[in-house]
Amino acid sequence: MNTADFPWLTTIILFPIAASLLIPVLPDKDGRTVRWYSLIVGLIDFALIVYVFYTQYDFGNCDLQLVESYPWIPQMDLNWSVGVDGLSMPLVLLTGFITTLAILAAWPVTLKPKLFYFLILAMYGGQIAVFAVQDMLFFFLVWELELVPVYFLLSIWGGKKRQYAATKFILYTAGGSLFILLAALTMAFYGDTVTFDMRSLAIKDYALNFQLLVYAGFLIAYAVKLPIFPLHTWLPDAHGEATAPVHMLLAGILLKMGGYALIRMNAQILPDAHAYFAPVLVILGVVNIIYAALTSFAQRNLKRKIAYSSISHMGFVLIGIASFTDLGLSGAVLQMVSHGLIGASLFFLVGATYDRTHTLMLDEMGGVGQKMQKIFAMFTTCSMASLALPGMSGFVAELMIFVGFSNSDAYNPTFKLIVVFLMAVGVILTPIYLLSMLREIFYGAENKELTSHEVLVDAEPREVFIIACLLVPIIGIGLYPKMLTQVYDATTVQLTQRLRDSVPTLAQQPQTPTVSFLAPEIGAR
Predict the structure, then answer these.
(1) What distance in Å separates the CA atoms of residue 245 and residue 98, rounded to the nearest whole number?
(2) Are 405 and 484 in contact (CB under 8 A)?
(3) Which of 3, 62, 160, 392 is most buried, with most CB under 10 Å away?
(4) Is 453 domain-assigned?
(5) Neighbours of 372 (CB within 10 A)
(6) Cα separation of 185 and 100, whole Å?
(7) Does residue 479 form part of some domain?
(8) By the 8 A CB rule, do 124 and 13 touch?
(9) pLDDT 10s digits, 94-130
(10) How far apart are CA 150 and CA 461, in angstroms?
(11) Does residue 524 form part of some domain?
Protein backbone atom coordinates (compact mmCIF):
# COMPACT_ATOMS: atom_id res chain seq x y z
CA MET A 1 0.00 0.00 0.00
CA ASN A 2 1.26 3.47 -0.91
CA THR A 3 1.64 5.38 2.40
CA ALA A 4 0.96 8.66 0.59
CA ASP A 5 -2.65 7.52 0.01
CA PHE A 6 -3.28 6.57 3.62
CA PRO A 7 -5.72 8.92 5.47
CA TRP A 8 -3.09 10.11 7.93
CA LEU A 9 -4.80 13.26 9.18
CA THR A 10 -8.18 11.60 9.67
CA THR A 11 -6.47 8.84 11.65
CA ILE A 12 -4.54 11.34 13.78
CA ILE A 13 -7.74 13.27 14.56
CA LEU A 14 -10.07 10.34 15.20
CA PHE A 15 -7.69 7.98 17.01
CA PRO A 16 -7.64 9.79 20.39
CA ILE A 17 -11.39 10.48 20.15
CA ALA A 18 -12.12 6.80 19.45
CA ALA A 19 -9.71 5.74 22.20
CA SER A 20 -11.49 8.01 24.68
CA LEU A 21 -14.75 6.13 24.08
CA LEU A 22 -13.17 2.94 25.49
CA ILE A 23 -12.23 4.56 28.80
CA PRO A 24 -15.63 3.97 30.51
CA VAL A 25 -15.30 0.18 30.02
CA LEU A 26 -11.69 -0.10 31.20
CA PRO A 27 -11.37 -2.17 34.40
CA ASP A 28 -9.86 0.36 36.76
CA LYS A 29 -10.46 1.21 40.43
CA ASP A 30 -7.67 3.56 41.48
CA GLY A 31 -7.06 5.44 38.20
CA ARG A 32 -3.71 3.77 37.51
CA THR A 33 -4.84 1.83 34.44
CA VAL A 34 -6.67 4.73 32.81
CA ARG A 35 -3.77 7.13 33.15
CA TRP A 36 -1.31 4.67 31.59
CA TYR A 37 -3.83 3.94 28.84
CA SER A 38 -4.26 7.67 28.12
CA LEU A 39 -0.51 8.28 28.10
CA ILE A 40 0.04 5.42 25.64
CA VAL A 41 -2.73 6.77 23.38
CA GLY A 42 -1.18 10.25 23.53
CA LEU A 43 2.28 8.91 22.73
CA ILE A 44 1.00 6.83 19.80
CA ASP A 45 -0.86 9.78 18.31
CA PHE A 46 2.13 12.09 18.77
CA ALA A 47 4.39 9.46 17.20
CA LEU A 48 2.02 9.32 14.21
CA ILE A 49 2.18 13.11 13.87
CA VAL A 50 5.99 13.08 13.95
CA TYR A 51 6.13 10.20 11.47
CA VAL A 52 3.83 11.97 9.02
CA PHE A 53 5.77 15.20 9.45
CA TYR A 54 9.09 13.59 8.59
CA THR A 55 7.91 11.28 5.81
CA GLN A 56 4.98 13.03 4.11
CA TYR A 57 5.38 16.79 4.65
CA ASP A 58 7.31 18.85 2.06
CA PHE A 59 8.90 21.99 3.51
CA GLY A 60 9.14 23.70 0.13
CA ASN A 61 5.48 23.23 -0.81
CA CYS A 62 3.35 26.26 0.06
CA ASP A 63 0.06 24.55 -0.83
CA LEU A 64 -2.09 22.22 1.27
CA GLN A 65 -0.59 18.78 1.79
CA LEU A 66 -1.98 15.45 3.03
CA VAL A 67 -5.34 16.54 1.64
CA GLU A 68 -8.30 14.24 2.29
CA SER A 69 -11.89 14.92 1.32
CA TYR A 70 -14.95 12.75 1.90
CA PRO A 71 -18.47 13.90 0.86
CA TRP A 72 -21.01 14.49 3.60
CA ILE A 73 -23.75 16.65 2.02
CA PRO A 74 -22.76 16.90 -1.67
CA GLN A 75 -25.66 19.23 -2.54
CA MET A 76 -24.08 21.91 -0.32
CA ASP A 77 -20.50 20.95 -1.17
CA LEU A 78 -20.12 20.02 2.50
CA ASN A 79 -17.26 17.58 3.03
CA TRP A 80 -14.99 16.14 5.69
CA SER A 81 -11.99 17.94 4.25
CA VAL A 82 -8.61 18.09 6.00
CA GLY A 83 -5.11 19.18 5.03
CA VAL A 84 -2.06 20.94 6.44
CA ASP A 85 0.34 23.60 5.24
CA GLY A 86 3.01 25.76 6.83
CA LEU A 87 0.48 27.57 9.03
CA SER A 88 -1.08 24.47 10.52
CA MET A 89 1.71 21.86 10.62
CA PRO A 90 3.75 23.54 13.41
CA LEU A 91 0.60 23.89 15.50
CA VAL A 92 -0.42 20.26 14.93
CA LEU A 93 3.03 19.23 16.20
CA LEU A 94 2.67 21.59 19.15
CA THR A 95 -0.76 20.17 20.00
CA GLY A 96 0.48 16.58 20.04
CA PHE A 97 3.52 17.50 22.11
CA ILE A 98 1.77 19.68 24.72
CA THR A 99 -1.25 17.38 25.12
CA THR A 100 0.91 14.31 25.67
CA LEU A 101 2.89 16.17 28.34
CA ALA A 102 -0.38 17.42 29.88
CA ILE A 103 -1.50 13.79 30.26
CA LEU A 104 1.73 13.08 32.14
CA ALA A 105 1.23 16.25 34.21
CA ALA A 106 -2.21 14.93 35.23
CA TRP A 107 -0.69 11.90 36.98
CA PRO A 108 -1.77 13.03 40.50
CA VAL A 109 -5.45 13.39 39.48
CA THR A 110 -7.58 11.11 41.66
CA LEU A 111 -11.05 12.69 41.35
CA LYS A 112 -13.08 10.93 38.62
CA PRO A 113 -9.95 9.90 36.67
CA LYS A 114 -11.92 8.14 33.91
CA LEU A 115 -13.93 11.25 33.11
CA PHE A 116 -10.84 13.47 33.32
CA TYR A 117 -8.80 11.44 30.83
CA PHE A 118 -11.84 10.92 28.59
CA LEU A 119 -12.15 14.69 28.26
CA ILE A 120 -8.41 15.16 27.67
CA LEU A 121 -8.32 12.61 24.83
CA ALA A 122 -11.50 13.94 23.24
CA MET A 123 -9.99 17.42 23.40
CA TYR A 124 -6.77 16.07 21.82
CA GLY A 125 -8.53 15.11 18.60
CA GLY A 126 -10.68 18.24 18.54
CA GLN A 127 -7.72 20.57 18.82
CA ILE A 128 -5.83 18.90 15.98
CA ALA A 129 -8.98 19.06 13.87
CA VAL A 130 -9.16 22.85 14.33
CA PHE A 131 -5.75 23.20 12.67
CA ALA A 132 -6.40 20.64 9.91
CA VAL A 133 -10.04 21.02 8.82
CA GLN A 134 -10.49 22.83 5.48
CA ASP A 135 -14.28 23.08 5.48
CA MET A 136 -15.67 26.20 7.13
CA LEU A 137 -18.73 24.54 8.68
CA PHE A 138 -16.69 21.63 10.04
CA PHE A 139 -14.21 24.18 11.36
CA PHE A 140 -17.03 25.73 13.38
CA LEU A 141 -18.11 22.31 14.67
CA VAL A 142 -14.65 21.24 15.86
CA TRP A 143 -14.07 24.73 17.28
CA GLU A 144 -17.16 24.13 19.42
CA LEU A 145 -16.14 20.54 20.23
CA GLU A 146 -13.09 21.60 22.22
CA LEU A 147 -15.12 24.05 24.33
CA VAL A 148 -17.12 21.33 26.05
CA PRO A 149 -14.15 19.39 27.55
CA VAL A 150 -12.57 22.63 28.80
CA TYR A 151 -15.82 23.64 30.49
CA PHE A 152 -16.03 20.35 32.42
CA LEU A 153 -12.29 20.30 33.19
CA LEU A 154 -12.70 23.72 34.77
CA SER A 155 -16.03 23.19 36.52
CA ILE A 156 -15.18 19.79 38.09
CA TRP A 157 -11.45 19.93 38.80
CA GLY A 158 -10.97 23.69 39.25
CA GLY A 159 -10.52 25.82 42.37
CA LYS A 160 -13.03 27.45 44.69
CA LYS A 161 -14.51 29.72 42.00
CA ARG A 162 -14.47 27.03 39.32
CA GLN A 163 -18.17 27.31 38.43
CA TYR A 164 -17.86 31.04 37.85
CA ALA A 165 -14.69 30.62 35.75
CA ALA A 166 -16.16 27.77 33.69
CA THR A 167 -19.41 29.63 33.05
CA LYS A 168 -17.58 32.79 32.04
CA PHE A 169 -15.34 30.75 29.73
CA ILE A 170 -18.24 29.07 27.94
CA LEU A 171 -20.27 32.30 27.64
CA TYR A 172 -17.39 34.24 26.13
CA THR A 173 -16.09 31.55 23.79
CA ALA A 174 -19.45 30.15 22.70
CA GLY A 175 -20.76 33.67 22.19
CA GLY A 176 -17.76 34.49 20.03
CA SER A 177 -18.26 31.27 18.07
CA LEU A 178 -21.65 32.47 16.85
CA PHE A 179 -19.82 35.06 14.75
CA ILE A 180 -17.86 32.23 13.09
CA LEU A 181 -21.09 30.46 12.17
CA LEU A 182 -22.75 33.61 10.86
CA ALA A 183 -19.69 34.60 8.84
CA ALA A 184 -19.28 31.06 7.46
CA LEU A 185 -22.91 30.88 6.30
CA THR A 186 -22.74 34.36 4.79
CA MET A 187 -19.58 33.54 2.81
CA ALA A 188 -20.87 30.11 1.74
CA PHE A 189 -24.06 31.50 0.21
CA TYR A 190 -22.40 34.54 -1.36
CA GLY A 191 -22.45 34.53 -5.14
CA ASP A 192 -23.75 31.89 -7.54
CA THR A 193 -22.29 28.80 -5.83
CA VAL A 194 -22.82 27.43 -2.35
CA THR A 195 -19.66 26.03 -0.78
CA PHE A 196 -18.00 25.74 2.61
CA ASP A 197 -14.62 24.71 1.22
CA MET A 198 -12.00 27.22 2.38
CA ARG A 199 -10.04 27.11 -0.88
CA SER A 200 -13.19 27.82 -2.86
CA LEU A 201 -14.18 30.60 -0.47
CA ALA A 202 -10.75 32.20 -0.86
CA ILE A 203 -11.21 32.68 -4.61
CA LYS A 204 -14.73 34.13 -4.51
CA ASP A 205 -14.96 37.74 -5.64
CA TYR A 206 -16.36 39.45 -2.55
CA ALA A 207 -17.39 43.09 -2.49
CA LEU A 208 -15.19 45.20 -0.21
CA ASN A 209 -18.01 46.17 2.15
CA PHE A 210 -18.94 42.50 2.46
CA GLN A 211 -15.33 41.58 3.27
CA LEU A 212 -15.13 44.26 5.94
CA LEU A 213 -18.31 43.03 7.60
CA VAL A 214 -17.23 39.37 7.60
CA TYR A 215 -13.72 40.29 8.73
CA ALA A 216 -15.17 42.18 11.72
CA GLY A 217 -17.25 39.14 12.67
CA PHE A 218 -14.27 36.80 12.52
CA LEU A 219 -12.15 39.29 14.44
CA ILE A 220 -14.64 39.37 17.33
CA ALA A 221 -14.69 35.56 17.50
CA TYR A 222 -10.93 35.15 17.42
CA ALA A 223 -10.32 38.15 19.70
CA VAL A 224 -12.04 36.17 22.44
CA LYS A 225 -9.81 33.13 21.99
CA LEU A 226 -6.45 34.87 21.40
CA PRO A 227 -7.43 36.86 23.60
CA ILE A 228 -7.49 40.56 22.65
CA PHE A 229 -8.40 43.44 24.95
CA PRO A 230 -11.23 44.03 25.92
CA LEU A 231 -12.50 40.48 25.32
CA HIS A 232 -9.77 38.91 27.46
CA THR A 233 -11.29 38.85 30.93
CA TRP A 234 -12.30 35.17 30.83
CA LEU A 235 -8.66 34.06 30.63
CA PRO A 236 -7.33 35.22 34.04
CA ASP A 237 -10.42 33.72 35.70
CA ALA A 238 -10.01 30.41 33.86
CA HIS A 239 -6.29 30.21 34.63
CA GLY A 240 -6.96 31.26 38.22
CA GLU A 241 -9.09 28.15 38.82
CA ALA A 242 -7.59 25.54 36.46
CA THR A 243 -5.34 22.61 37.38
CA ALA A 244 -1.82 22.27 35.95
CA PRO A 245 -2.66 20.03 32.93
CA VAL A 246 -5.60 22.26 31.98
CA HIS A 247 -3.30 25.29 32.31
CA MET A 248 -0.94 23.67 29.82
CA LEU A 249 -3.72 23.11 27.31
CA LEU A 250 -5.15 26.61 27.72
CA ALA A 251 -1.83 28.43 27.40
CA GLY A 252 -0.14 25.98 25.07
CA ILE A 253 -2.86 25.34 22.50
CA LEU A 254 -6.21 27.11 22.95
CA LEU A 255 -4.84 30.65 22.66
CA LYS A 256 -2.99 29.64 19.49
CA MET A 257 -6.26 28.64 17.86
CA GLY A 258 -7.26 32.32 17.84
CA GLY A 259 -4.00 33.42 16.23
CA TYR A 260 -4.12 30.62 13.67
CA ALA A 261 -7.72 31.40 12.70
CA LEU A 262 -6.93 35.10 12.42
CA ILE A 263 -4.25 34.31 9.85
CA ARG A 264 -6.19 31.56 8.05
CA MET A 265 -9.61 33.21 7.83
CA ASN A 266 -9.06 36.95 8.10
CA ALA A 267 -5.73 37.43 6.36
CA GLN A 268 -5.73 34.58 3.84
CA ILE A 269 -9.37 34.56 2.74
CA LEU A 270 -10.13 38.28 3.16
CA PRO A 271 -6.90 40.09 2.17
CA ASP A 272 -8.60 43.28 0.95
CA ALA A 273 -10.36 43.76 4.29
CA HIS A 274 -7.13 42.90 6.10
CA ALA A 275 -5.49 45.93 4.48
CA TYR A 276 -8.09 48.15 6.21
CA PHE A 277 -8.05 46.34 9.55
CA ALA A 278 -4.25 45.90 9.82
CA PRO A 279 -3.68 49.24 11.64
CA VAL A 280 -6.44 48.27 14.07
CA LEU A 281 -4.65 44.97 14.76
CA VAL A 282 -1.40 46.85 15.40
CA ILE A 283 -3.09 49.19 17.88
CA LEU A 284 -4.85 46.30 19.63
CA GLY A 285 -1.52 44.46 19.79
CA VAL A 286 0.16 47.42 21.47
CA VAL A 287 -2.74 47.74 23.93
CA ASN A 288 -2.43 44.03 24.74
CA ILE A 289 1.30 44.32 25.35
CA ILE A 290 1.23 47.41 27.59
CA TYR A 291 -2.10 46.95 29.37
CA ALA A 292 -1.55 43.29 30.25
CA ALA A 293 2.06 43.90 31.35
CA LEU A 294 0.98 46.71 33.67
CA THR A 295 -1.93 44.66 34.99
CA SER A 296 0.42 41.77 35.67
CA PHE A 297 2.38 44.08 37.99
CA ALA A 298 -0.68 44.54 40.20
CA GLN A 299 -1.53 40.83 40.51
CA ARG A 300 -0.73 39.18 43.84
CA ASN A 301 -2.16 35.85 42.66
CA LEU A 302 0.55 33.84 40.91
CA LYS A 303 -1.74 32.24 38.31
CA ARG A 304 -3.34 35.53 37.35
CA LYS A 305 0.07 37.19 37.05
CA ILE A 306 1.21 34.58 34.51
CA ALA A 307 -2.19 34.75 32.75
CA TYR A 308 -1.83 38.48 32.11
CA SER A 309 1.74 37.86 30.96
CA SER A 310 0.32 35.49 28.32
CA ILE A 311 -2.10 38.16 27.12
CA SER A 312 0.80 40.60 26.81
CA HIS A 313 2.89 38.18 24.75
CA MET A 314 0.03 37.46 22.35
CA GLY A 315 -0.02 41.16 21.44
CA PHE A 316 3.19 40.60 19.49
CA VAL A 317 1.34 38.03 17.35
CA LEU A 318 -1.18 40.68 16.28
CA ILE A 319 1.56 43.11 15.25
CA GLY A 320 3.38 40.43 13.26
CA ILE A 321 0.19 39.46 11.42
CA ALA A 322 -0.38 43.11 10.47
CA SER A 323 3.21 43.88 9.43
CA PHE A 324 2.89 43.07 5.69
CA THR A 325 6.41 41.59 5.77
CA ASP A 326 7.70 38.03 5.48
CA LEU A 327 9.75 38.44 8.63
CA GLY A 328 6.92 39.89 10.71
CA LEU A 329 4.44 37.17 9.75
CA SER A 330 7.08 34.49 10.28
CA GLY A 331 7.76 35.96 13.72
CA ALA A 332 4.04 35.82 14.56
CA VAL A 333 3.88 32.08 13.80
CA LEU A 334 7.11 31.51 15.72
CA GLN A 335 5.75 33.51 18.67
CA MET A 336 2.66 31.31 18.81
CA VAL A 337 4.74 28.13 18.97
CA SER A 338 7.26 29.68 21.36
CA HIS A 339 4.62 30.96 23.75
CA GLY A 340 2.85 27.62 23.62
CA LEU A 341 5.99 25.96 24.96
CA ILE A 342 6.95 28.68 27.46
CA GLY A 343 3.40 29.26 28.72
CA ALA A 344 2.86 25.54 29.29
CA SER A 345 6.11 25.27 31.24
CA LEU A 346 5.36 28.28 33.48
CA PHE A 347 1.83 27.20 34.31
CA PHE A 348 2.96 23.65 35.03
CA LEU A 349 5.51 25.03 37.49
CA VAL A 350 2.86 27.25 39.06
CA GLY A 351 0.82 24.11 39.65
CA ALA A 352 3.82 22.26 41.07
CA THR A 353 4.52 25.18 43.44
CA TYR A 354 0.90 25.31 44.56
CA ASP A 355 0.87 21.55 45.26
CA ARG A 356 3.61 22.17 47.84
CA THR A 357 2.73 25.56 49.31
CA HIS A 358 -1.08 25.35 48.95
CA THR A 359 -1.20 29.07 48.28
CA LEU A 360 -1.10 31.25 45.18
CA MET A 361 -0.65 34.54 47.01
CA LEU A 362 2.82 35.99 46.64
CA ASP A 363 2.52 37.68 50.05
CA GLU A 364 2.35 34.25 51.69
CA MET A 365 5.45 32.87 49.99
CA GLY A 366 9.11 33.79 50.32
CA GLY A 367 12.32 31.85 50.72
CA VAL A 368 10.91 28.58 49.39
CA GLY A 369 13.88 28.26 47.03
CA GLN A 370 15.98 27.01 49.95
CA LYS A 371 14.04 23.75 50.11
CA MET A 372 12.77 23.54 46.50
CA GLN A 373 16.01 24.11 44.62
CA LYS A 374 15.08 22.14 41.49
CA ILE A 375 11.76 23.94 41.14
CA PHE A 376 13.59 27.23 41.77
CA ALA A 377 16.06 26.46 38.96
CA MET A 378 13.34 25.36 36.51
CA PHE A 379 11.07 28.31 37.33
CA THR A 380 13.97 30.72 36.82
CA THR A 381 14.95 29.16 33.48
CA CYS A 382 11.39 29.24 32.13
CA SER A 383 10.94 32.83 33.34
CA MET A 384 14.11 33.77 31.46
CA ALA A 385 12.57 32.25 28.34
CA SER A 386 9.38 34.24 28.88
CA LEU A 387 11.25 37.54 29.22
CA ALA A 388 12.94 36.84 25.85
CA LEU A 389 16.45 35.99 27.02
CA PRO A 390 18.80 35.64 24.00
CA GLY A 391 19.35 31.99 23.15
CA MET A 392 15.71 31.08 23.79
CA SER A 393 12.76 30.94 21.41
CA GLY A 394 10.96 34.00 22.80
CA PHE A 395 13.87 36.28 21.96
CA VAL A 396 14.01 35.19 18.32
CA ALA A 397 10.24 35.47 17.83
CA GLU A 398 9.96 38.95 19.30
CA LEU A 399 13.08 40.14 17.47
CA MET A 400 11.64 38.95 14.15
CA ILE A 401 8.41 40.83 14.82
CA PHE A 402 10.34 43.96 15.87
CA VAL A 403 12.54 43.95 12.75
CA GLY A 404 9.71 42.91 10.43
CA PHE A 405 7.40 45.68 11.58
CA SER A 406 10.22 48.27 11.68
CA ASN A 407 11.04 47.51 8.04
CA SER A 408 7.41 47.49 6.92
CA ASP A 409 6.63 49.95 4.14
CA ALA A 410 2.89 49.74 4.86
CA TYR A 411 2.93 52.38 7.59
CA ASN A 412 4.26 55.91 7.89
CA PRO A 413 7.48 56.39 9.92
CA THR A 414 5.79 58.26 12.79
CA PHE A 415 3.26 55.48 13.38
CA LYS A 416 6.02 52.85 13.24
CA LEU A 417 8.19 54.80 15.66
CA ILE A 418 5.37 55.06 18.22
CA VAL A 419 4.48 51.37 17.91
CA VAL A 420 8.09 50.18 18.15
CA PHE A 421 8.67 52.39 21.18
CA LEU A 422 5.61 50.98 22.96
CA MET A 423 6.64 47.42 22.03
CA ALA A 424 10.04 48.14 23.57
CA VAL A 425 8.33 49.38 26.74
CA GLY A 426 6.44 46.09 26.92
CA VAL A 427 9.67 44.15 26.51
CA ILE A 428 11.22 46.16 29.36
CA LEU A 429 8.22 45.66 31.64
CA THR A 430 8.26 41.87 31.24
CA PRO A 431 11.54 41.15 33.07
CA ILE A 432 10.58 43.59 35.82
CA TYR A 433 7.40 41.77 36.84
CA LEU A 434 8.81 38.29 36.22
CA LEU A 435 12.01 38.86 38.19
CA SER A 436 10.07 40.50 41.04
CA MET A 437 7.80 37.43 41.02
CA LEU A 438 10.79 35.10 41.38
CA ARG A 439 12.15 37.23 44.19
CA GLU A 440 8.90 37.11 46.14
CA ILE A 441 8.52 33.34 45.74
CA PHE A 442 12.02 31.99 46.17
CA TYR A 443 14.31 34.62 47.68
CA GLY A 444 14.61 36.14 51.13
CA ALA A 445 13.85 34.65 54.49
CA GLU A 446 11.47 31.72 54.79
CA ASN A 447 7.88 32.46 55.68
CA LYS A 448 7.72 30.62 59.01
CA GLU A 449 3.93 30.54 58.93
CA LEU A 450 4.10 28.69 55.62
CA THR A 451 6.93 26.27 56.46
CA SER A 452 5.40 25.42 59.83
CA HIS A 453 2.44 23.62 58.31
CA GLU A 454 3.57 22.73 54.76
CA VAL A 455 6.22 20.20 53.77
CA LEU A 456 8.18 21.85 50.96
CA VAL A 457 9.54 18.89 49.01
CA ASP A 458 11.54 19.42 45.84
CA ALA A 459 10.58 18.42 42.29
CA GLU A 460 10.11 14.73 41.55
CA PRO A 461 11.57 13.05 38.43
CA ARG A 462 8.25 13.25 36.54
CA GLU A 463 8.15 17.03 36.95
CA VAL A 464 11.79 17.46 35.97
CA PHE A 465 11.19 15.33 32.87
CA ILE A 466 8.20 17.43 31.74
CA ILE A 467 10.12 20.71 32.06
CA ALA A 468 13.18 19.20 30.36
CA CYS A 469 11.00 18.14 27.42
CA LEU A 470 9.67 21.70 27.10
CA LEU A 471 13.07 23.36 27.47
CA VAL A 472 14.68 21.31 24.67
CA PRO A 473 12.62 22.96 21.86
CA ILE A 474 12.64 26.35 23.64
CA ILE A 475 16.43 26.42 23.65
CA GLY A 476 16.77 24.58 20.34
CA ILE A 477 14.61 27.11 18.49
CA GLY A 478 16.38 29.95 20.26
CA LEU A 479 19.78 28.76 19.08
CA TYR A 480 18.72 27.63 15.60
CA PRO A 481 15.36 29.15 14.61
CA LYS A 482 15.54 27.73 11.08
CA MET A 483 14.64 24.33 12.54
CA LEU A 484 11.10 25.71 12.85
CA THR A 485 10.90 28.58 10.34
CA GLN A 486 11.74 26.29 7.43
CA VAL A 487 8.53 24.38 8.14
CA TYR A 488 6.34 27.36 7.25
CA ASP A 489 8.54 29.76 5.26
CA ALA A 490 7.03 28.83 1.89
CA THR A 491 3.49 29.40 3.15
CA THR A 492 4.12 32.69 4.97
CA VAL A 493 6.08 34.16 2.04
CA GLN A 494 3.23 33.35 -0.34
CA LEU A 495 0.64 34.75 2.09
CA THR A 496 2.61 37.96 2.63
CA GLN A 497 2.74 38.53 -1.10
CA ARG A 498 -1.02 37.97 -1.33
CA LEU A 499 -1.54 40.54 1.42
CA ARG A 500 0.79 43.05 -0.26
CA ASP A 501 -1.01 42.55 -3.59
CA SER A 502 -4.21 43.71 -1.90
CA VAL A 503 -2.62 47.12 -1.20
CA PRO A 504 -2.00 48.98 -4.50
CA THR A 505 0.91 51.01 -3.09
CA LEU A 506 2.70 47.83 -1.94
CA ALA A 507 1.88 45.42 -4.76
CA GLN A 508 4.70 46.50 -7.06
CA GLN A 509 7.27 47.35 -4.39
CA PRO A 510 9.96 44.96 -3.15
CA GLN A 511 10.18 44.54 0.59
CA THR A 512 12.90 46.32 2.53
CA PRO A 513 15.90 43.99 3.02
CA THR A 514 15.85 42.35 6.42
CA VAL A 515 18.39 40.74 8.70
CA SER A 516 18.80 37.38 7.03
CA PHE A 517 20.35 35.49 9.96
CA LEU A 518 16.98 35.58 11.79
CA ALA A 519 15.42 33.27 9.21
CA PRO A 520 17.74 32.28 6.39
CA GLU A 521 14.92 31.65 3.95
CA ILE A 522 13.45 35.12 4.48
CA GLY A 523 15.06 38.24 3.19
CA ALA A 524 14.60 40.90 0.56
CA ARG A 525 12.07 40.00 -2.07
Answers:
(1) 9
(2) no
(3) 392
(4) yes
(5) 21
(6) 35
(7) yes
(8) no
(9) 999 999 999 999 998 888 889 999 999 999 999 999 9
(10) 28
(11) no
From residue 100, alpha-carbon distances to 269, 412, 429, 473 in Å are 32, 45, 33, 15
Taking the C-alpha atoms of residue 395 and residue 67, their distance in angstroms, rounded to an integer, is 34
If one counts the domains in the chain, the total is 1
- The answer to whether 256 touches 336, Cβ cutoff 8 Å, is yes
Q: State yes or no: cis peptide before 230, omega within 30 of 0.
A: yes
Q: What are the distances in angstroms from CA 299 to CA 31, 303, 361?
A: 36, 9, 9
Q: What is the mean pLDDT of residues 278-286?
A: 95
SS3 270: coil
Give, in order, the Cα–Cα distances in Å from 384 to each of 68, 357, 379, 389, 465. 42, 23, 9, 5, 19
Domain span holding position 391: 3-518
Angle at CA 489, nearest 5°, toward 484 and 493?
A: 155
Rounded Cα distance, 329 and 402, in Å: 11
Q: Model confidence over 186-234: pLDDT tens digits?
A: 998 888 888 888 888 988 888 999 999 999 999 999 999 989 999 999 9
Position 226 in a domain: yes
Q: Which 8-state DSSP code applies to residue 197?
A: B
Confidence of residue 508 (pLDDT cuts 50, 70, 90): low
Nearest by Cα to 375 from 444, 458, 445, 438: 458
- Decide: 59 and 483 in contact? Cβ < 8 Å: no
- DSSP symbol at 83: E
